[in-house]
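As promised in the previous annual report, we have extended the structural survey to additional targets. Below is the entry for P-loop NTPase.
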Amino acid sequence: MMNHQAKKLEELVASNNKNKSKKTRFVAITSGKGGVGKSTISSNLAYVLSQSGLNVGIFDADIGLANLDVMFNVKIKKNILHVLKGEATVSDILIPITRNLILIPGESGDEILKYSNQALFERFMQEAEILDKLDIMIIDTGAGIGEHIRMFIDAADDVIVVTVPDPAAITDAYATIKTIAALRDDIGLIMNQVKSEKEAVAVYEKIKKVALANIGTNLDLKLIGKINSDIKVSSSVKQRALFSASYPSSGVHKDIIAIADNISKNLERNMLVTPSESGLSGLFKRLVKHF
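The corresponding structure token record, generated without further manual editing, is:
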């Protein structure tokens, strides 16, 4: 039944695959364990990218933890699961954060599509076209390496693992990288809460050395950037504010800008691709393949 439904959905997605004005780049941000600042980085990164003039969506793929509503200081009443159940429209659930930034409240991946039928999915794909102008979508996944997290990782153009220079966190980050490497060779790494760039590079080199020795030399593990340990970050989280908005002249804001610049370089290369997958409907076109 599920396979039959999935085939119908795939046919439907193909019929909805019109030429778009641009191809949205999907960036999944994940971590080996909780508490390493993944959602803080995702939210601030989305904000900084939107401030640069890009149209940005941030998709909360781990709504159970209610991280992003806290980061952006907004209230979420309904999420994407309500849309797939036919209990809300896409427009109902979207939360504008700034002029170029939209929060898309999600649901854990194993719930997505479970309740949808062809008629509801067709309506969803049509409604989701309002997000087809997105340049980039940040997918804030849950921590760990569960099946539904792998689904989002497989659907993304870029995958970035966040970790901190703590032995347990580094071990979990390596385990996550090893799991992701079974799906793709290119993986990004962000070192959070470091004392300096020197420390970030040292930890990255250590992880890379072990990974290349045990996973294989095809692995392309890149250091996307680092964020220094700073009281401004935890202070902002407590105040339900973005540190990039509250402290625009801080070192941590400059760290996020450097990370955003690295991601934007990939976006520029992506523009050379013939546009075919855009916005939220583009993401679901990829996710459908897993059902």
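The CA atoms of residues 49 and 261 lie 8 Å apart. The chain is about 45% helix and 20% strand. These points will be discussed at the next consortium meeting with the crystallography subgroup.
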